[in-house]
Amino acid sequence: MSPLLVLIGLISAPSAALPGSAGAIHVDPRPVAAGKFDPASRARHGELQPFTGFRARRPEKRYSVTVPIGKPKPAVALPRIEGPADARLPLVVIDAGHGGHDPGAVSPHDGSREKDITLALARAIRKDLLASGRVRVALTRADDRFLVLEERYGIARRLKADLFISVHADAAENQDASGASIYTLAEVASDREAARLAARENKANIINGVDLGAHSGDVSAILLDLTQRETMNLASDFARLLQREASDEVEFRTTAHRFASFIVLKAPDTPSVLFETGFVSNKDDVAFLVSPAGQKKIARGVREAVQVHFARQIAER
Ligand SMILES: [Zn+2]
Predict the structure, then answer these.
(1) With the CA atoms of 40, 44, 48 and 54 taken in that order, what torsion angle do they form, in degrees rounded to the nearest 10?
(2) Are 102 and 230 part of one and the same domain?
(3) Domain range for residue 35?
(4) What InterPro entries has UniProt attached to this entry (predicted)?
(5) 160 CA distance to ligand 1 middle (Å)
(6) Fewer CB near the terminus (10 Å): N or C of the chain?
(7) 36 in a domain, yes or no?
(8) Would 124 be classed as within a structural domain?
(9) Total structural domains within the chain
(10) Do 99 and 26 reside in the same domain of the chain?
């Protein structure tokens, strides 16, 4: 009778001493005579093989990690520039704070949402500025949509705006707190409250725990640039003007011009202010902010400040 091939396999478990090694099968075929098949099959023929040389060759880059991240998000569409079709006229970009799934502050009195107040104010300001015929105007958003902070000042930069005004309304636990204030950019906040407000406004970028705005660190570095210093001076000049021109009809806080590190103000080449128009947590303020009469008063103040601001710049040339 012809010899039989007996295959005895032994599957070894992965060895803890050799991390990364898989299980191995060692096969040891040998001929046995038919009469010896039974004893041969019962005998132990397998043996453990060491795992060295298991891989054909070592991977060349030992720590290379590839993570698919998808295509970069395209830049948001630029808004329409309204007003006279004369590119020499200054361009003012009005930014209605918050929007979409970010309501901003919500009034404990009437439930008014900051995002709706800021949009109504932005529209009122646009109307007044266009009526003046001296500037061109664009809104970062003209409806209820969400934009990250970098997209907001990004729009102003891409349009080469001469002035950027981000419109907001504050909220405080103390419902007596009232009045408008104007913030300009500084890496060090002028006071604790300004720092708190900047932290809260900057949070608009963090949605579901994911930080959607990426480059604030880069932009901070640009602060050292002279261009930025000039831009910041122009913004401060405008902030003072806005308080002066609007204070006939809009109640301002005692210290109306404050400084803090707001992401939305970080365009290095566009003078930018953040106009906190009042407190939605204050009964009188919120009634003023939601009323068409109050919105008109704020718009008029902005228009007058804008006119003086650009008249000064033309005079200085
Ligand atoms: Zn806000």
Answers:
(1) 30
(2) yes
(3) 4-42
(4) MurNAc-LAA_cat (IPR002508), N-acetylmuramoyl_amidase_3 (IPR050695)
(5) 24
(6) C
(7) yes
(8) yes
(9) 2
(10) no
Q: How far is the CA of 120 from the centre of ligand 1 (A)?
A: 14
Question: How far does residue 151's CA lie from ligand 1's centre (Å)?
Answer: 15
Residue 291: how many CB atoms within 10 A of its CB?
A: 12
Per-residue pLDDT of the chain (317 residues; tens, 9 = 90+): 444 444 444 444 444 444 444 455 555 566 767 777 777 767 665 555 555 544 555 556 556 555 555 555 677 889 999 999 999 999 999 999 999 999 999 999 999 999 999 999 999 999 999 999 999 999 999 999 999 998 999 999 999 999 999 999 999 999 999 999 999 998 888 888 899 899 888 888 765 444 545 444 554 454 445 677 888 899 999 999 999 999 999 999 989 999 998 989 988 889 999 999 999 999 999 999 999 999 999 999 999 999 999 999 888 87
Tell me, in angstroms, the distance from the centre of ligand 1 to residue 188's CA: 19
3-state secondary structure of 162: coil
The CA 292 to ligand 1 mean position distance, Å, reads 20
96 located within any domain = yes
Expressed in angstroms and rounded, the spacing between residue 104 Cα and the centre of ligand 1 is 5
Residue 114 Cα to ligand 1 midpoint, Å, equals 7
Q: Give the position of tokens 């365009």.
A: 267
Distance from Cα 82 to the centre of ligand 1, integer Å: 25
- Angle (nearest 5°) at CA 255 between 252 and 138: 55
Q: Are residues 102 and 10 in the same domain?
A: no
- One-letter amino acid identity for 137? V
In a domain, 76, yes or no: no
Ligand 1 centroid distance, CA of 123 (Å): 17
